[in-house]
Fold:
Amino acid sequence: MKKVKLIVYPAIALVALFYWLVACNNLNPLYLEGALFWAVLITAYAVVYCLFRFGEVSFHPNTEKQAQIPFRYVPKERVPKLAKLLIALPWAVILVVYVGSSFLFHYKAYRDQLGTPQVKEFTSDVQVVDLSQLPIVDRDLALKLADKKLGERTSLGSQAVLGEPTIQMVDGELIWAVPLYHSGFFKWLTNMEGTPGYITVSATNTNDVQYVEGYPVKYQPNGYLFDNLNRYIRTFTAPFVGVTDYSFELDDTGRPYWVVTTYRNLRGFNLPEANGAILIDAATGEHQRYSIDEVPEWVDRVQPEDFLRTQIANQGEFVHGYLNFSNRDKFRPSEGETVIYNNGNCYYFTGLTSVGNDDSAIGFMMVDMVTKEVSHYKMAGATERAAQNSAMGKVQHLGYDASFPIIINVDNLPTYFMTLKDNEGLIKQYAFVNVENYSVVGNGETISAALDSYRQGLANEELGSAGATADPEEQVEVQGTVLRIASEIMDGETSYKMLLEEYPDRIYTLSAALSEELALTQPGDRVTLMAGDTQPVARASEFDNLTIGASQEDAAA
Structure:
């Protein structure tokens, strides 16, 4: 009996240790996964103790009939109720804590976890669009471009595979950073110092894809033994700390790090709240833990997207408690979310819809992904999905798919921007969709052409100031006689430049989409247009050739 005990008790500990090294779960009993781990371990020891204490266990059968049985247990007395209660105690504690920390008893904590949003004006808070910095490369396209770059290096392509890309701002440039992972166990054995680098894909230029060497990625989420990122963190850094959301980020010198969010639960096993980050050098494993106030400036995200989405949903669900069966004032995040950059900071951005309405947004929320500062923009309009459908409807004859849109400021109007891609995932056109009136859609084969088309749509609907620039000036009606006119084609789009006899020192630029009469306009024609009157180069938003119009009237007469 004693020999059996000497085998069983250490065996349980070894099994538990092996499981922990494989699963790499949190050992802190204040978190659900840690509590379950200890409950299983305590239960295993308690059950084995009861077997030995109130019965006899033997692994050496005494008869030939029993020889087919690996062990024998002979109860000597009944297990007391107190012992059974002690075995059930850890599970009862877990159940009580889990239920006791649910929204049934703490709905206000669920509702208020996000914090009180600051109600802001969209036009004053979100910077005006810079066409050269519009992110046109989404995650899927970034992976496609990175895979193409990886395939250019035959020897590397057979050893490494692409990891999860992360969009980020590095030294003022918006990029996707894509780590390289070992393609298998034997590739890891022959390259235990790590994969030789990573790939960056510009989020604003599909032609800017770079393979960066000199920064090996040794620690990886799918790594082996202690090169496995999660196992390395649990074993050497944070065995009793809540960690989540591993993101691959670069500092301003291009050195890769893993930014791992740390969190604690505000109520029992529920309401996880980010409270800092662990930065791990992807090559050396050197690590440092920071609070939210201490994280380096180059770190773009600490708040996990799933945390923020859940907190927004809870605020809308429990706005008047959990017994609000009439759904009064309830709201929820729209289907889908995106990460945007505004004034150099990284934000989680999502639309808000009322419960039961899928196409109409009642506002938008923007949450700083480091500090969790929340901004609320109260404005009615279309959801992201509705805007996608509107943009695809514009080109339905071409069968293009719209990427998930980002929201930008165009001429002080909230506007969705998205790319239109073919079946191969390649960008064919660009689209702008007005948030308040998603029937206003501008599309084109270049961003500038799509913007001109969008501004023309705004002018037709009398929305905003069509044709305004990033620093819009007041437009006035101008009439005059054409002195010179010339067309030019840039990026496949035609535009016109015009001089008027009355204003020889001012050049007017006009998109061909403004009017079909532009192609027929000649020097000497009388024209009228809407444009600024203070700049040497003014973009026109409306155009009419009065001479052609008069000729048509004479012909009709």
Summary: The longest helix spans residues 2-23. Residues 189 and 391 are 49 Å apart (CA to CA). DSSP finds 13 helices and 30 strands in the chain.
